[in-house]
Design goal:
Protein name: Flavin reductase (DIM6/NTAB) family NADH-FMN oxidoreductase RutF
CATH class: Mainly Beta
Shape: globular
Order of helices and strands: HEEEEEHEHEEEEEE
CATH topology: Pnp Oxidase, Chain A
Strand content: 35-45%
Mean pLDDT: 93
Radius of gyration: 18 Å
Distance between the termini: 42 Å
Pfam families: Flavin_Reduct
Keywords: Oxidoreductase
Structural class: mainly beta
InterPro entries: Flavin_Rdtase-like_dom, NADH-dep_flavin_reductase, Split_barrel_FMN-bd
Low-confidence stretches: none
């Protein structure tokens, strides 16, 4: 006999975009910024969907909406930058998440890195990656990228995203 999970008085909801968002608001995620060089200059966005995929070869993945302002550059570029943000970078995360923001203007500190990829300063870690594949997934694409070089040695503690807010780790 199979036990029925006790869900109390709650009624399960049918699948919907709102249910997906509600469930994943409860999932704490690390915060990254993905960057690329587009035809008109640098582009970037905040991502909480960053995942390690494989050690051999070294692959990672992230999701991006095909409606995102950064998508045209990400869809065409060979290389992207991945930046792991520290808890001191809540404003930077918010800037790269905000539609219409001047993401690379003051006070964002960055430089041109290998392969022309914009590299953000003062992050916990960064990677330059070669795009391996862009996989259709509903209104998004899952980008698989192989990292070719990076720096894991930035000081600080990671920035987290939970319940719609940025925060740091608690001991």
């Amino acid at each position: 006999m199979t036990a029925t999970p006790d869900i109390g008085a709650r009624t399960p909801q049918l699948a919907s975009p709102d249910l997906l968002r509600s469930v994943f608001r409860r999932h704490a995620a690390g915060v990254a910024v993905i960057t690329a060089l587009g035809e008109t200059g640098p582009v970037g966005f905040t991502a909480t969907s960053l995942t390690s995929v494989s050690a051999e070869p070294p692959l990672l993945s992230f999701g991006i909406s095909t409606g995102a302002s950064s998508w045209p550059a990400i869809s065409a570029t060979e290389h992207i930058g991945v930046h792991i943000l520290g808890e001191h970078q809540q404003e930077l995360a918010a800037t790269f998440a905000r539609s219409g923001a001047d993401r690379f203007g003051e006070p964002t500190a960055w430089r041109e890195g290998p392969e022309g990829v914009p590299v953000l300063d003062d992050v916990l870690a960064w990677l330059v990656c070669r795009v391996h594949a862009r996989v259709p997934a509903g209104d998004h694409r899952v980008v698989l990228a192989e990292f070719v070089l990076g720096d894991p040695a930035g000081p600080g503690r990671p920035l987290l995203y939970h319940q719609g807010h940025f925060s740091g780790l608690r001991d």
